[in-house]
Amino acid sequence: MVVPELRAWRAARPHVVRIKRTVQPRVTRVAQAVQPRVTRAAQSVRPHVVRAAQAVRPRSVKFTTPRLTAVAATAGLALAAGAVAFAGPWDSSGQRTAERDWAASREGEGGADHGRSSDTSPTAPKPAPSAASVLTGLGGSTVSVPAPTQKALTSTLDRLLGDPALGGRRTAVVVDVATGKRLYGKGADDAQTPASTTKIATAVAALSAAGADHRIETRAVLEPGTKEVVLVGGGDPTLTARKEAAGWASLRTLADETATALKARHLNQVTLSYDTSLYTGPALHPIGTNPNLAPVSALMVDEARTDDSASGPVTRAADPAADAAGKFAGLLEAKGIKTTTPGLSKATNGSQSLASVSSPPLSALIERMLTNSDNDIAEGMARQVALATGRPADFDGGAAAIDAELKKLGLPLSGAHFTDGSGLNRDDRLTADLLTALLVKAGDPAHPELRPILTGLPVAGFTGTLSDRYADDASGTGLVRAKTGTLTGVNTLAGTVVDADGRLLAFAFLASDTTDPSAAQSALDRTASALAGCGCR
């Protein structure tokens, strides 16, 4: 029987490996250093223990389990204290001085990016080079550093993109972010299924149309002359009912403030309704019921998840709005407000506000969407674009609004076709040219509102959908930031990378007709890593 590896362990494994590599040598050195002291201490103590045992033997003392435990614990603490004392002393910054002195005594090694000062010991190791920033180059700060040449990039990338694991169709573009100049192109204008890299386009459109500071409000209102309370959904896909809201809009806070407002009106029993009229059209995505996406609704909490997860596939509530209203009713009753079973309704223009909560700025939602490849947020963002541009807030309206907003920004839309905001629909079509143009636009100093797109991209080996990748490829770890895309037979990667000279490059790699997702992902990762290690001139 094969036991599947736990998802949590897969995500944590690269970090555990790195920690192990760092800690293991130190533990070994401490153990080797402490062992002689422990041996001498044991030899010194043994005669006293024997005499003490002989002295108490006539009393036939029986050591119980609690006593043995106490003795063992005391001995363990003493040994630990001895080890810490031996390993020390410690300086005011918490560094072990013995370790610092040991490091200084070793043969000099490392880079020379940081100049030595006059008080640097000649035996100290050479300073390590600074790691390149994953956002180096924004605003043209590296224009003085030569960009890679087309010939050198072609020699490097053609070989890597020829990997059979990338299927029968593969396209690629590499662009210098500081200048916008294309450095490499392979099928640049050939539209392919982009999978979740579609979210980059959705993010640009949402930040451009609604603004990075826009917040989404969820309200509770009272219909005048009645005891009807209406929970009005504003389309916030990050609204949460969990005790720890972690900065997101809280349904618990909304319920607490609503209960307070009702009690001030001497109301302790109400009719509860909910309003989802902000969104129109079908709630179910064309792919049907799927653990990667809840039915799209203007009112939902925790993305209608049926467990305590915050990302990834999981069974969803069939009716997210009814689920949210039911939780709201329970929270009100916990505050002494009795409610009826919630029912669908619509708030009138004359309704009186009881309480409201707002999402964090749209910039934060965009970063979360890109880092975790969050489909629920993506479809919510598409509808925010539709609302901001006066279109119906449904799948068709969102897709049309994204296309129109990108056209306003002057982006190359030839061959592009949008059907949703998440990229789950296989009918979506984007080009590598458009994806890199979107990334360059996000780095343009003239569009600071788009910067969350670059900061929200997963970091290779560390965050989001790239946290469990690049574990065996150190050259790209921490330097590649990219949005992943995966559907059956489709693997894509688009993002930014800092090359060996500190130049920020935008890239997009799209592969179709792949048969082994893992092999295809590794091939794409190796290609992005090659950019990180390449001066390519």
Automatic annotation (TrEMBL):
The chain crosses the membrane at residues 68-90. Keywords: Carboxypeptidase, Hydrolase, Membrane, Protease, Transmembrane, Transmembrane helix. The keyword Transmembrane applies. It comes from the Bacteria. Residues 97-117 have a biased composition (Basic and acidic residues). One of its GO terms (molecular function) is serine-type D-Ala-D-Ala carboxypeptidase activity. Signal peptide: none annotated. Its EC number is 3.4.16.4. Residues 118-133 have a biased composition (Low complexity). Residues 90-143 are annotated as: Disordered. InterPro entries: Beta-lactam/transpept-like, Peptidase_S13. Pfam families: Peptidase_S13 (PF02113). Gene3D superfamilies: DD-peptidase/beta-lactamase superfamily (3.40.710.10). Belongs to the peptidase S13 family. This is D-alanyl-D-alanine carboxypeptidase/D-alanyl-D-alanine-endopeptidase. It comes from Streptomyces mirabilis.
